[in-house]
Amino acid sequence: MNVFDYFFKSTQNLEKDFLLGSKETISFNKLYSNSLKIAAFLNRYIGAEKNIILISPNSKFFITTYLGILKSGNVCVPLNFAIEQENLDFIINTTECDTIFIAKSVRSKYTIPSYIHVIEEKDLEQIIDNQSIEDYYVEVKKNQLAEIIFTSGSTGIPKGVMISHENIIANTNSIISYLNLTSKDIMCVVLPFFYCYGLSLLHTHLRVGGSIILNNSFMFLGAVLNDLKDYRCTGFAGVPSHFQILLKKSKTFKTTSFPDLRYVTQAGGKLHSVFIDEFVKAFPKIEFYVMYGQTEATARLSYLDPKMIHKKMNSIGKPIPNVKFKIVDDKGETTGVNQEGELLAKGKNIMLGYYKEEEETQNTIKNGWLYTGDVAIVDEDGYYYLKARKKEILKVAGKRVSPKEIEEVILSVEEVMDCTISGYDDDLFGEAIQATIVVNGSFDEEQLKEKILHICSKKLAIYKMPQKVVFEKALKVSATGKKIK
């Protein structure tokens, strides 16, 4: 099944608005019709199974184009609207793209080869006004490639994750199931759609007949809080930095009432327990879902039931419906309870592979299992805990050290807004530990450093103590909101 038909199976005739907001709105039936016209246009002039790049902030333009590309049987390649020219050139060449949809607001930033057909908002409007959809039909196989999402590779070269129509359908069904989403749900979207977490919000609310409100200016916290209240949002989704900023930077967030907010979800990295605890205490009636996922899994792999947030603090929970986990050691043998190893995942949401990277694909997917690269344990109740990325594990004086354990301790200091633990070369230990600290408000550097090291000395083994403590003025985040390390 084409994922487009799956999204609109029961909503294509709805006059209800899918996109809410003061700047742009569009109903389900209008979005369905407009996207079909884009699909028909693409099939007539471009064909099918071609790679088509889409560069745009979250908007009606992005949503309509994205859905039209999927329906046409072509492959959507959504890119960061702040992508570097060098990386854009690489992706254009690698994907052999000859059509780019790009928002006018970012078009002037890029030099695009003259042979490429460039389509902006005004061109899209003309296509919608003039294109017929009579007798439109393109067959799409369930395992056919739907999109390529590029992530930063370990070498710095972008790596394309290939996601099929079946991958999206499987992951969307699972997310809807455990979040209990219905047509009454309204999501405040601050995550960009070129990011798999952001796309999952679009997918799930399209499918159930819910609505979304787009907020592309998270740093203006007042606007976010107003949207949550004014549009009676039932859901909010964020990465760790979003919650850290709301809890530490906003003076009114914790004292504001959000009567319609049923739940929040957090993924995109570990949000340390001190922040989760602070949120849950401030909003005891709002369900807090800790989640874990990867682009290679379409979006989501596990979630922690909000009822278990205190009993299983720091856990990523259990696999989502129709996904299996196991943990293996260096020999590939399944580990026992509370024994560390690499986390593996299996399900219909696991990617087809990396685009034009056969060797990398074979190293990552073996016998249907996705090797996540995350070191984890499972407890006696079947709850999973991440210890570190395999590449992030530090070796101090021959001993394995997880950065997350040290970060958790330092973040318990009230003044600390964020902490990043990293290693650096040391003649004595081989690798020594550096703590990079972001503080909320003014502070005395020497006094705070002494306080941090005192708490570390009480809660950590001596070899886990930071040898360097560095202070930075602000939290550095990427376009997805993830912390830049």
Automatic annotation (TrEMBL):
GO terms for molecular function: medium-chain fatty acid-CoA ligase activity. Residues 405-482 form the AMP-binding enzyme C-terminal domain. Residues 15-355 form the AMP-dependent synthetase/ligase domain. Keywords: Ligase. The keyword Membrane does not apply. It holds the Pfam family AMP-binding_C. InterPro entries: AMP-bd_C, AMP-bd_C_sf, AMP-binding_CS, AMP-dep_synth/lig_dom, ANL_N_sf. GO terms for biological process: fatty acid metabolic process. The keyword Ligase applies. Belongs to the ATP-dependent AMP-binding enzyme family. This is Acyl-CoA synthetase (AMP-forming)/AMP-acid ligase II. It comes from Xanthomarina spongicola.
